[in-house]
Design a protein that fits this description.
The structure holds three protein chains of three kinds. Chain B is α+β, with helices and mostly antiparallel strands. Chain B is built from eight helices and ten strands. Helices cover about 30% and strands about 20% of the residues of chain B. The relative contact order of chain B is 0.20. Chain C is an alpha/beta fold. The chains are: A alpha+beta, B alpha+beta, C alpha/beta.
C-alpha cells in the first residue's frame, strides 16, 4: 500500500515487456469478486442504435429472454464499441433501477392497447382485435365519405382517388420494411397528407 | 502485477457523457433526481449511485471562451486517503493496482467519504456502505475494458497499462503545449504519488474543478497514526469522524456554491 | 450524405456548419479525430453558439442564425476572387462552361431573378423559370465556352452574383468578425487542389430555414468549386438526426414522392402512366431508367392485378392536387375541419412540430386519432394538455403499444446510406408489438372489411397486393424484404440488383434503390458483418450501401480526365487501361455500358447534363430549385434587420407562408421581439423527448428545459443562472393568447451578443425536447417557432426567429 512514485514507475516498467495489459484487453489476474461476470451466461444480439443517423452497433446481452446489459459493439466498423450518453442508456428505455437498485420495467413503456372515448378523461385498456377492427371502421367511414375519385383538369376527367381527410405522420424511428408497408398502406387508402420526421 | 490505467485526455473530450451513462448502465446504478442549476453538469456531485461524472467548466475573457469538459471519478491514488482512513482495512489495492472497497468488510463509518480529496466516495443509505468507482474490476478480471473507457467516442478515455500510457501522456501534453496551449500539463503523476486515472489537462486543474494540490487530509493522517494500529476504539473514532465530517461538509458546501 | 462516417478520416479540412456534430453525432468526432491525428486535419465550427463542437474545434466562427447563405456566398466569392478553385475540375466536371439563356438576369435591387410573377394561390412570388435554361444549338446540344469568359456562362454568372458577398458585407449581415471570416475562408478554400479534401457536414442548422434548400445548394457549389465531390474525405454530408430518417425518406414517407425518389403523380401533369413516364423521364443518364423502376414498383404494389392493359394499376395511386400536403399545411387542413383522422407512428408533432402549442388546439377537430408508439406522447394525449378540457373534446384516441428498437428486426439506413440489419434481442413487454406486425394486421383488417362490405373505390384497397403472412399466420419479414429487393415475376427469383429490373411487368421491386440489399435469402447483403482489415475504411462487406453498395457517390469525379485519382493517397476508383475497366476500393459510379470518354463527360450520372450544377437550371422533374438558380441571401421570415444586400428584398419571396400575421413584419414588432432565437438538440435527449424524457439516466443529466443567454443579456434582465425565464414570440397559442414558454436561465459565455450592421443583438438558444407528458416535463421551444417553410421542401424555419425574454 505504501508505494512511492518511484515504485509506481518500477511496477509499471516491469510489466511493459510482459504486456499483460493492452489497450484491447487485460490478462485475467486473481479474481477478487469471486462471482462470474454478470453477462457471462447471456446470449448476444446485434442491434443498431435507434437514435441519431450514425448507426452505431450495440450488443444486447440477453438472459432468459430479457436484456440484462446493452453496450457498444466493438466489432462495429463505425462506432468500434463507442456510444454517446443516449446510446449507452438504451437499456433504460425498457428497464430502470428503482431506488433500491432493483431492475424493473420502465413504467413509461406502454404494454397495452389504450382507448379514449369521446369526452372521456381517461384511457381504458382494450385488446388488439377490438382496436384494429374499430380503427379499420374509422378509416373506412372517413375514407368512403371523403375520397375524391375524379377531377376535371382542363376539360379532361382525371382519376385521382385521394382523400384530404386523413393525415399520416410516419417515422424515422421505424425500419425500412415497416416504412415501406406504411407507405403502401397510405397510398392504398388514398392518403396524400403524408409526412415524417425529415420535415418535422 | 501490472498497473491498470485510464489516460484521460481532456483536449479530446466532447462532453457527450457516454462514460457517465455507461457507468450507470454497467454498474446497475439508479438515477438521481436533479434540477437544472445553470450548467450542463449533473448530478452536481458524486454519490453512492454516481461514480462517474463529466464536469463542464467555462472560462475566458474578452469574448474568448474556453469550455472545459472532463470525465471525473475515483482517481485510484497511490497514496489513497481512503485506504488510510479506513479503520477496518476494507479498502484495498487490487491486482490491477486500482483501489476498491470490499463491501463485506465495510462498516459504513464514512471516514473514507470524508477523507477523499476528490470527494468521489458516496455513502449508500440502503446498505450502509461506502461505494465508489471500482475501475470496473469485474470487467478487468474478465478481459474487458472499463465501461467508461470502451464507450468513449473520441478516446478521450484510453485504457491500458501505465507503462504505455504515462509516456503517451507526456507526448500528448508536449504536443498541446507546442500547439499553443501553454498551460497544458499532466495531472496524476506527482499528485498523491501517482493516480491510475492520469489526466492530460489543457489548463490548470482548478479550471476543471480538480484540486490543485490534492493531499491526504491531516485528520486522516492523524487518524491513521493514532487509531489504525489499535484497530479498535471505534467510539472515539466515531467522534473524531463527526468532527472531520463537519469541517469537510462546510468545504463541500462552499465548493458547491462556487461550482458552475 | 454523398460520403459516409468512416470516410471523414480522409478529410484535410472539415467545416461543421449548421450542425453541432459533437453534440448530435458524437461518434463522428471519432473519425474527425482520426483525420486530425493522421494528417493534421483542421476542424472549423460555424454556429451561433459556442457549442460542444466549437469547444474542440480549431476555429470557431460565430454567425447570426439564418445567415448561412451570406456566409457561404462570401466563401464562394473568396474562392473565385482569389482563384482558389480546382480549375480542371470546375472546367470539366461542372456546368461552369455552359451558356445560360441570355434573358436570364438578377435584379440586385429587388433580389429577384427573371421570371418572377405573383402566385395568387399562395399569396407569394413564383418563377416561370423559362429563362433559367442552357443555350442550345440547332441540334439541341448545349452551347459551351471552355475558356469560361463568356458573360453568359455559368461561371461568369456565378462570379457576378456573388461579387456583392464581400467580407465586409458578410460581416455586417452575419455578425462574424472580419478576421475570423477571412481565416475560415482561407483555411477552407485551401482544399481547392488535387490531393486535398474538404468536407462540409451539416444538419438542421442548414436545412430548417425558409431558404434551407438553397443553403444546401450553396454548400454544393462550394464543394464543386473546390473539387471536393466524389473524392474520399470530401462530399456534401447531411448528418441525419434519426436512425432511419434516411431510410424513411428512401421509402417515401413523404407526400410528394413514392419509394426511390420518384415524384408522386400530379393530377395535372400525370393523369396516366404514359404521361407520368413521359414527363419525368429524361433522355440521358441514370433517370432514363425511371420506367423500369416505376413499373416494377407498381408490380410490387398491385401484384397480379397490375397489367399492361390497366397501366399496371396506376389509376389506384392517389394523384396530388398541386397543393402542399406536408405537415404544416396538413395541420392547417385540420384546423379548417377538413381532416377527420390522424395516424401518427412514433412521431410527436405537438413537441417536434413548428408552432406546436397552436396545433394542440387544432387536434380537437379530429374525430379519431391513432398513435403507435412505445410511450404515451403529447400528440396522443393532447386532450390532457394545457388549456384542454377533456369533457369538450370528442376525439377518439387509440394508442397502440409498439416495440423498442431492440425488440424488432429489420434494417435501418444510416446517414452514409449503409442499410444495416438489426436483430431482435427480446420480446416487447406485455402486449406491445413491432410496427411491422401492427401495420400488417391493420391493413389486413381494412382489406377484409372492404372485401366484405365494398365502399368507395374499394379496388384501391382490395387490389393492393398484401401477402406477408408466414405459415404461422404472423408477418414474415423475409417476404417484405424480398418485395423491396425485387424479384422476377415468373419464377419469384430475387434480382441481383436494379440493373435486372424491367419496364414490361416482368419484375417487381418495392424500391429500386434498395435492390441488392436482400440479394439472396441465405446471407443477404444487408446482414453482412465483415470488417475490412486494409484499405480506405469503406467496409464494403459490412451491410449494404445504396445504390449498388457504393460508399461514395459520384466517385468518377475522384479521378482526373485520364482516370487517375486526384489523390493517390486515398484512391477511391481508377481506370485500369490494361483491363479496360474501372477498378478500385469502391463500386464505380459508372454504368457498365458507358465508355471511358462518356464517363469522363458525365461524372454526375444522375443529371441529364452529366456534370455538377453551379447554375441550377429550371425544374424539369429532376433537380432544380423553385427559388432561383443561385442561392441568394434572404432574411429569415422573422427578421431583426432589413436585407442589407438587396434593398427591396426581405425574406425569401417564394417561401411557403400559411398563416396571416404570423411572423414579425413591422418595426414595432421588432422592438417587441428584439432578440434572435435559435433552437437545437442536446446529446442527452432525442427529438421530442418522448422516449428520453422517460429514461431516468438521461433525465438525471438534463432534467429541465432551459434557455441559454449571454452574461451581458442576463445583466440587462437582472437574471441569475438557474432563474426562471419567460420567452415570448409572435406565435399565438390560440386566438388572443400570447405564445410564451418557461425555461431556466443558463447564463453563459458561450453565447455572445453579435454586432449586426453596427447594432448589438442578443442571441437566445433553446432546446426543444420538452413537453407536458412523461417523467420530465416542460415547455417546448417549438411553441414559439413559426410555421413558415422552404419553397422546395416546406421544412419549417425552426432555427431563426425573434423573441422577447423576461424574468418569470
Amino acid at each position: 500500500m505504501d508505494m512511492t512514485r518511484r515504485d509506481f514507475f518500477k511496477l509499471t516498467g516491469a510489466t511493459a515487456a510482459a504486456a499483460a495489459l493492452t489497450a484491447v484487453g487485460v490478462r485475467k489476474v486473481a479474481a477478487s469478486t469471486g462471482e462470474p461476470l454478470r453477462i457471462k451466461y447471456s446470449k448476444e444480439y446485434h442491434t443498431i442504435c435507434t437514435y441519431c443517423g450514425v448507426g452505431c452497433g450495440i450488443i444486447c446481452h440477453v438472459q432468459d429472454g430479457i436484456i440484462v446489459n446493452a453496450e457498444g459493439d466493438p466489432d462495429h466498423p463505425i462506432s468500434e464499441g463507442t456510444l454517446c450518453s443516449k446510446g449507452s442508456s438504451i437499456f433504460n428505455a425498457t428497464y430502470i433501477y428503482d431506488e433500491k437498485g432493483r431492475p424493473r420495467l420502465n413504467p413509461a413503456r406502454l404494454t397495452n392497447v389504450l382507448y379514449r372515448a369521446p369526452r372521456s378523461d381517461r384511457y381504458e385498456v382494450r385488446d388488439w382485435d377490438w382496436a384494429l377492427t374499430e380503427i379499420a371502421k374509422r378509416i373506412k367511414d372517413t375514407r368512403d365519405r371523403t375520397l375524391v375519385q375524379t377531377v376535371d383538369v382542363g376539360g379532361r376527367t382525371v382519376t385521382v382517388n385521394r382523400t384530404n381527410a386523413i393525415n399520416w405522420l410516419g417515422s424515422a424511428w421505424c425500419t425500412g420494411e415497416e416504412n415501406y408497408l406504411f407507405h403502401k398502406m397510405c397510398r392504398a387508402m388514398g392518403v396524400i397528407n403524408l409526412d415524417h420526421c425529415a420535415r418535422l | 502485477m501490472a498497473q491498470a490505467m485510464c489516460l484521460i485526455d481532456t483536449s479530446r473530450c466532447i462532453g457527450c457523457r457516454g462514460c457517465q451513462a455507461a457507468c450507470k448502465q454497467w454498474n446497475q446504478l439508479p438515477a438521481e433526481t436533479t434540477t437544472f442549476t445553470g450548467s450542463y453538469e449533473n448530478p452536481p456531485r458524486f454519490s453512492s449511485d454516481t461514480w462517474c461524472r463529466v464536469a463542464f467548466r467555462e472560462h475566458g475573457d474578452n469574448g474568448r471562451v474556453d469550455w472545459l469538459m472532463s470525465k471525473q471519478g475515483c482517481m485510484h491514488c497511490t497514496d489513497a486517503a481512503c485506504m488510510q482512513a479506513c479503520p477496518v482495512g476494507a479498502i484495498y489495492r487490487t491486482a490491477f493496482g486500482t483501489v476498491d472497497i470490499d463491501q463485506v468488510k465495510c462498516i459504513g463509518c464514512n471516514y473514507c467519504v470524508v477523507a477523499c480529496p476528490f470527494d468521489v466516495i458516496g455513502f449508500d443509505r440502503r446498505t450502509n456502505k461506502a461505494r465508489k468507482c471500482t475501475f470496473c474490476i469485474d470487467r478487468l478480471e474478465n478481459g474487458l475494458q472499463p465501461a467508461c473507457a470502451i464507450v468513449c467516442p473520441t478516446r478521450s478515455i484510453t485504457f491500458g497499462d501505465a507503462s504505455d500510457l504515462v509516456p503517451e501522456a507526456m507526448i500528448r501534453a508536449d504536443r498541446l503545449r507546442a500547439a499553443g496551449r501553454v498551460n497544458a500539463r499532466i495531472y496524476g503523476l506527482d499528485e498523491l504519488n501517482g493516480t491510475a486515472m492520469l489526466y492530460v489537462l489543457t489548463d490548470a486543474p482548478e479550471k476543471y474543478g480538480l484540486p490543485a494540490d490534492p493531499e491526504v487530509p491531516l485528520q486522516t493522517r492523524i487518524s491513521n497514526v493514532i487509531f489504525r494500529p489499535l484497530r479498535l476504539v471505534v467510539v472515539v473514532a466515531a467522534v473524531f469522524g463527526l468532527w472531520a465530517t463537519r469541517s469537510r461538509s462546510k468545504q463541500l458546501e462552499q465548493a458547491r456554491t462556487e461550482s458552475k | 450524405m454523398t460520403n459516409h462516417w468512416n470516410d471523414y478520416q480522409h478529410s484535410d479540412v472539415i467545416m461543421a456548419i449548421g450542425g453541432n456534430t459533437a453534440e448530435n453525432h458524437p461518434i463522428s468526432m471519432k473519425w474527425i479525430g482520426r483525420a486530425r491525428g493522421r494528417k493534421g486535419a483542421k476542424l472549423i465550427c460555424v454556429d451561433p453558439r459556442y457549442n460542444r463542437t466549437a469547444a474542440v474545434a480549431d476555429l470557431y466562427v460565430p454567425i447570426r442564425p439564418g445567415t448561412n447563405i451570406a456566409y457561404l456566398g462570401g466563401l464562394i466569392n473568396y474562392i473565385l476572387q482569389n482563384e482558389r478553385y480546382h480549375k480542371e475540375y470546375v472546367e470539366h466536371y461542372t456546368n461552369a462552361s455552359f451558356l445560360v439563356n441570355e434573358n436570364f438576369s438578377f435584379d440586385e435591387n429587388t433580389g429577384l431573378f427573371t421570371g418572377a410573377e405573383p402566385d395568387p394561390v399562395r399569396n407569394a412570388t413564383k418563377y416561370s423559370m423559362q429563362d433559367w435554361q442552357y443555350q442550345t444549338d440547332a441540334q439541341g446540344n448545349i452551347r459551351k465556352d471552355p475558356a469560361l469568359t463568356d458573360p453568359n456562362c455559368s461561371f461568369q454568372l456565378l462570379k457576378k452574383h456573388y461579387s456583392r458577398y464581400t467580407i465586409d458585407n458578410v460581416s455586417r449581415i452575419t455578425g462574424t468578425p472580419i478576421d475570423v471570416l477571412e481565416q475560415s475562408y482561407s483555411l477552407y478554400s485551401s482544399t481547392g487542389q488535387a490531393g486535398k479534401a474538404g468536407n462540409i457536414l451539416y444538419a438542421m442548422g442548414i436545412t430548417q430555414f425558409t431558404h434551407g434548400a438553397q443553403n444546401v445548394r450553396a454548400v454544393a457549389i462550394v464543394q464543386l468549386l473546390l473539387g471536393n465531390m466524389g473524392i474520399a474525405g470530401g462530399g456534401v454530408n447531411a448528418q441525419r438526426g434519426q436512425s432511419n430518417v434516411q431510410g424513411a425518406t428512401d421509402m417515401a414517407m413523404l407526400y410528394h414522392i413514392i419509394p426511390g425518389y420518384n415524384p408522386c403523380p400530379q393530377q395535372g401533369a400525370h393523369p396516366t402512366l404514359a404521361d407520368y413516364l413521359a414527363r419525368t423521364t429524361p433522355q440521358k443518364n441514370w433517370w432514363s431508367n425511371r420506367p423500369k423502376y416505376i413499373v416494377s414498383l407498381l408490380k410490387a404494389f398491385y401484384g397480379a392485378n397490375a397489367t399492361a392493359a390497366n397501366g399496371f394499376g396506376y389509376q389506384w395511386l392517389p394523384k396530388l392536387d398541386g397543393l402542399d400536403h406536408s405537415h404544416i399545411p396538413a395541420y392547417k387542413y385540420m384546423r379548417d375541419g377538413e381532416v377527420e383522422g390522424l395516424i401518427c407512428v412514433a412521431d410527436n408533432p405537438l413537441v417536434g412540430g413548428s408552432s406546436s402549442r397552436a396545433k394542440l388546439g387544432y387536434q380537437k377537430n379530429l374525430k379519431w386519432l391513432v398513435s403507435i408508439d412505445v410511450v404515451e406522447n403529447e400528440t396522443a394525449s393532447f386532450w390532457k394538455g394545457p388549456g384542454m378540457n377533456p369533457a369538450e373534446i370528442d376525439t377518439e384516441v387509440f394508442i397502440l403499444p409498439a416495440a423498442f428498437s431492440y425488440e424488432r428486426e429489420g434494417e435501418k439506413a444510416n446517414s452514409g446510406r449503409w442499410i444495416q440489419w438489426m436483430w431482435k434481442a427480446q420480446e416487447p413487454p406485455g402486449n406491445a408489438k413491432a410496427d411491422l406486425w401492427i401495420v400488417n394486421e391493420m391493413f389486413k383488417k381494412l382489406q377484409t372489411l372492404y372485401q366484405a362490405e365494398g365502399g368507395t373505390v374499394p379496388e384501391q384497397i382490395t387490389m393492393m397486393s398484401w401477402d406477408y403472412d408466414g405459415p404461422d399466420g404472423q408477418i414474415d419479414i423475409v417476404k417484405v424484404c424480398r418485395e423491396i429487393n425485387g424479384y422476377r415475376v415468373n419464377d419469384g427469383s430475387l434480382v441481383t440488383n436494379f440493373v435486372g429490373l424491367q419496364d414490361d411487368g416482368s419484375t417487381a421491386c418495392g424500391n429500386w434503390l434498395y435492390s441488392g440489399y436482400y440479394n439472396n435469402l441465405e446471407s443477404p447483403a444487408t446482414k453482412k458483418r465483415i470488417r475490412e482489415t486494409e484499405g480506405l475504411g469503406f467496409h464494403k462487406d459490412w451491410s449494404f450501401a445504396w445504390p449498388l453498395n457504393r460508399r461514395i457517390v459520384y466517385n468518377r469525379a475522384s479521378c482526373d480526365l485520364q482516370g487517375k485519382p486526384w489523390n493517390p493517397d486515398a484512391p477511391v476508383i481508377w481506370w485500369d487501361a490494361a483491363q479496360g475497366r474501372w477498378v478500385g476500393n469502391d463500386v464505380p459510379d459508372i454504368p457498365g455500358a458507358w465508355s471511358f470518354e462518356y464517363s469522363t463527360e458525365n461524372p454526375f450520372i444522375m443529371l441529364p447534363e452529366g456534370v455538377g450544377r453551379l447554375f441550377s437550371i429550371g425544374y424539369q422533374g429532376i433537380g432544380g430549385l423553385l427559388d432561383g438558380p443561385f442561392p441568394t441571401h434572404y432574411e429569415p421570415a422573422d427578421s431583426p434587420v432589413p436585407n442589407l444586400l438587396y434593398p427591396q428584398a426581405t425574406y425569401n419571396p417564394v417561401s411557403q407562408r400559411f398563416y396571416e400575421d404570423h411572423t414579425v413584419e413591422t418595426d414595432e414588432e421588432r422592438q417587441r421581439y428584439p432578440h434572435i432565437a435559435t433552437s437545437y438538440r442536446l446529446v442527452e435527449h432525442y427529438q421530442s423527448g418522448s422516449v428520453t424524457r422517460n429514461q431516468p439516466w438521461l433525465v438525471e443529466m438534463m432534467p429541465e428545459m432551459f434557455a441559454e443567454i449571454s452574461e451581458e443579456h442576463a445583466e440587462e434582465l437582472g437574471v441569475k443562472n438557474g432563474d426562471m425565464l419567460i420567452i415570448e414570440s409572435k406565435r399565438l397559442y390560440k386566438d388572443g393568447e400570447q405564445g410564451h414558454i418557461r425555461a431556466r436561465a443558463c447564463v453563459t459565455r458561450r453565447i455572445q451578443p453579435l454586432m449586426i450592421d453596427g447594432v448589438r443583438r442578443h442571441v437566445v438558444g433553446m432546446p426543444f425536447h420538452w413537453g407536458f407528458m412523461g417523467m420530465s416535463t416542460g415547455d417546448s421551444a417549438n411553441d414559439l417557432t413559426p410555421s413558415v417553410g422552404d419553397p422546395n421542401t416546406t421544412i419549417p424555419e425552426y432555427k431563426a426567429f425573434l423573441c422577447n425574454v423576461r424574468r418569470a
